[in-house]
Amino acid sequence: MTRAGQVATAWYIGAQREAVGDAAILIGDPARIDRIADHLTEVTFLPESRGLRTITGLRQGRRITVSAFGMGAPIATIVLHELAALGVRTFLRIGTAMAMLPVALGDFVLADGALRAEGTSITYAPLGFPAIADFDLNTALRARLRQAQRPWHAGIFATHDGFYTEMFVISGERRAMADTLKDTVERLGLIGIDMETSALLTAARVLGVRASTLCIATVDARTQEKIDGEVMARAETDLFEVALDALAAPSA
Predict the structure, then answer these.
(1) What pLDDT tens digit does each residue of the chain (252 aa) get?
(2) What is the spatial distance between Cα 209 and Cα 198, in angstroms, rounded to a whole number?
(3) CATH superfamily for domain 17-248
């Protein structure tokens, strides 16, 4: 595997090498930056650039960077690529995913790998290249998940680009295609659907860094039922704790 070329300052996120740790959490919603900051100590808020918010803080003595990318594989992969070029070696995407049975709303879903059905990862490697999570990182995550008071599942995700055409359909003419995609996901035994994981896992492998994804199941892929707001708030707090503890663990 090649290594990401080292830079002093990242182009889009604007961070400098000394401002980041050697591990990073990637999140979608920029509002989560303020909430996860409460779970760190000695937090530094980096200058916001192009709407991308980034902080670095301490968890059990380890410097961890958290960066919000918004939504979708292209920008998520840009953020990972830039942080890798600054020297970050371990990445964990946390956030939300659609649930496939037997996953229930509010459960955690851990990606061991992902079906590459998005368009970004092909710019890093041909489709025959597998999107696989880092084994040691997932071992640390499994150890921490066993301590959590919340059901969790590990398996393979499907990653798509078209939220309103392939995942959450609001127009009738697209429903048949989306249902066919979900039939395939169900037949293959996949546990969740998102918009970032396969691209991040592929890019990380090619760049010579480690990556995985841990999400809250927030939408039922079949019924499109959404998670209750209070349940989501509690799950998010648990997610922050599991993710930060796993990254701070010596085995990670």
Answers:
(1) 345 567 788 878 888 899 999 999 999 999 999 999 999 999 999 988 888 999 999 999 999 999 999 999 999 999 999 999 999 999 999 999 999 999 999 999 999 999 999 999 999 999 999 999 999 999 999 999 999 989 999 999 999 998 888 888 766 667 777 777 788 888 899 999 999 999 999 999 999 999 999 999 999 988 889 999 999 999 999 999 999 999 999 877
(2) 14
(3) Nucleoside phosphorylase domain (3.40.50.1580)
What are the residue ranges spanned by the domains of the chain? 17-248
Q: H/E element holding 96?
A: strand 90-99
Would the pTM count as exceeding 0.90? yes
Strand partners, 158: 115, 193
CA angle 222, 228, 232 (to 5 degrees): 105
In the structure encoding, which two tokens stand for residue 222, read together?
Answer: 């079949």
